[in-house]
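Data availability (excerpt). All sequences and predicted token strings are deposited with the supplementary files. A representative entry, Transporter, is shown inline so that the format can be inspected without opening the archive.
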Amino acid sequence: MANITLAIAPVFLVILLGFVLRKAALVEAALWSPMERLTYIVTFPALLISNLAGADLAGLPWQRVGLAVALTTLAIAALAWILGRRWGEPPLPGRRLDGPARGALFQAAIRPNTFVGLAAAGGLLGPAGITLTALCVAVVVPMVNVLCVAVLSLTRPGPGGDRRAALRRTLVGIVTNPLILACIVGIALNVSGLGLPPVIGPTLEVIGRAALPLGLMAVGAGLAVAPEEPRPDSALLPALGLSATLKLILSPLIALLLALILGLRGEALVAVAIYGGLPCAASAYILARQMGGNGPLTARLISAQTLLAALSMPLVAGLVLALAG
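Structure token line:
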């Protein structure tokens, strides 16, 4: 267990560094947004392409990995939707959640933080962990974006006349998503046998090395920004309790169970379970604001889940590594 904690601890220490740098204003606030953008469109795609293009995909059970994370996402999405709608009705306790709160709960329950996932898998499994997580990204990111837009459209207050436009924007966003495109390019270079050219390959590797530290520091910097509405939200405790239970406990357990049923073992089993237990990504807050959801509640759920994941992820990793042998 100590070795697992030591492998994952650097991930959260770099997140903490980003938090301290932003909170103490040691780095100009105006620099964080461009840095996050640079990570999203340049360094992370470079990491994914260089890793996938050079990986031994023929030796990986990529179909079963993709199926395991896809089914996990659908299962948690169904639970989040049902619990969000039924919360406060007998026999469930508490007050009912309004539409925007249900949307925040849904996003927090199913949207994974890719930065944390790649860093944690890389720390535990090395390059193979990054490759397996990249395959998970290629499957889950499009699913999550479509599901979240659909739910936020259904739960937003007021008329929903722009739902078709929102879905269209999401589909365009999926097609042009740098992470998805990078996965496609890397896999295409691999299966075609072309690989990376002699000069381009090392260049992408150098650029990709900056992805994880920059991405994790950006996650920490995001935690240092207070929501625009500091007043307490009555939906915070139930939404946090439900989303954290679904995302950090049930999701990795379901992913682990499905992976075992599908015959995954070793590194693939570990990667699927770790990916299932990732905290919510900051992109949930951006989408909530764009679609009239509860942005402040979403921001609080993201922050709380990231902190809780520092405790839950080593436990999940310990369990799955014990099973993986």
